[in-house]
Amino acid sequence: MSCDHSFSVFQYFLTGECAEVFASPPADPAIGFGTYLLFFALTCLFEWPWYRKPLRVLFLNLLTHPLVVWGWPVLIRNLGGGYGAYVLAAEAFAPALEAWALHRIWKVPARRAVWMALGANLFSWLVGGEIVNRWLWPWVQVWIRA
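Above: the chain's sequence. Below: its structure in token form.
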């Protein structure tokens, strides 16, 4: 069994599999700015179908993405939590804040804002994560080392 994909978090919380990955503290977010920009752009691309407007996609991701990548791992580690707790906290935080912003800033009805944010974030995390891990990661590693 492999624990290197987005769906493995469900294996951990439902069956206890992947404990070696999800119970350990989150790693330091030690990625360079260029690599971060690549992942930020991919996240925006994966969330585009839900948010549709360029400014909206960019704003919502600028609001949450840096905190998910750099802030939450440090906070959860300092609180003594594991990687699984980080994933749950970060992936609950992002759609909650994005739904709030959609509702307050763009006046999207609350229920629709929640579904938009959940859809965008689940798609970018699950499907986007699979695409990056399976097909893009070898190329990203080459780019990082260059």
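The two ends are 32 Å apart (CA to CA).
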